[in-house]
Amino acid sequence: MRRVFEGVPELDYLRDLRAGGLPKNIELFEFYFRPGAMLGIPVAQQNYVSSNYTHAARDMLARGVNAVLVMVAERGGRYSLSCNPDLTVDVVKAMRARNAPCVVAALVNRNLPFMAADAEVDESFFDVVLDAPAHEHPLFGVPNRRPTPRTTRSGSMPPRS
Question: Phi/psi of residue 73, each to 5°?
Fold first, then answer.
């Protein structure tokens, strides 16, 4: 864990969620958990939205999403949603089209790859841009572990040790 996630901060909202300390005015719905990460946390499991990524924007909007918080790359005063522009752009456009209160906030992290074309957005896309180098952190990749056999050649499960 230290090797893979060194320098990556724990998110305060997750710490609060695990401790049962989210403010009463915050409703948190997630459509992805790392396997096993929310065992024993009923509110997280009850507010889990089983959504295929293709339908994530639709499902977020149906629940009344009113805030998008996104980490962005910055180069020379230009901003990029990096490698995940599709969901962000779709949700923001739809939120704003509803004419309901909403906010779009960006946190600059220059460690993200700067992607151009559809990933590049103007600063005016955001209501708030936080450019604070002290809050930039290294990126992490999913560990590439060597696969291990789950069954023996006969197809039966190996004995437990």
Answer: -95, 150
User: Which amino acid is residue 29, in one-letter code?
Assistant: F
d(CA 30, CA 49): 6
For residues 95 and 68, give the distance between their C-alpha atoms in angstroms, rounded to a whole number. 9
Cα 81 from Cα 75, distance rounded (Å): 12
User: How many degrees, rounded to 5, is the angle at CA 10 between CA 28 and CA 25?
Assistant: 25
Query: What tokens were used for 98?
Result: 């509803």
Q: Give the pLDDT confidence score for residue 128 in this predicted structure.
A: 97
Asked if 89 and 81 count as a contact pair (C-beta separation under 8 A), the reply is yes
Question: What does the pLDDT look like over 57-97, one tens digit per residue?
Answer: 999 999 989 999 999 999 999 999 998 788 899 999 999 99
What domains can you pick out in the chain, each with its CATH number?
1-50 (no CATH), 66-137 (3.40.1080.10)
Give the span between the Cα atoms of 46 and 43, in whole angstroms. 5
Q: List CB contacts of 109: < 8 A, sequence separation 6 or more.
A: 71, 72, 73, 135, 136, 137, 139
Residue among 57, 124, 55 nearest 90 (CA)? 57
**∠ CA 11-14-17, rounded to 5°:** 150
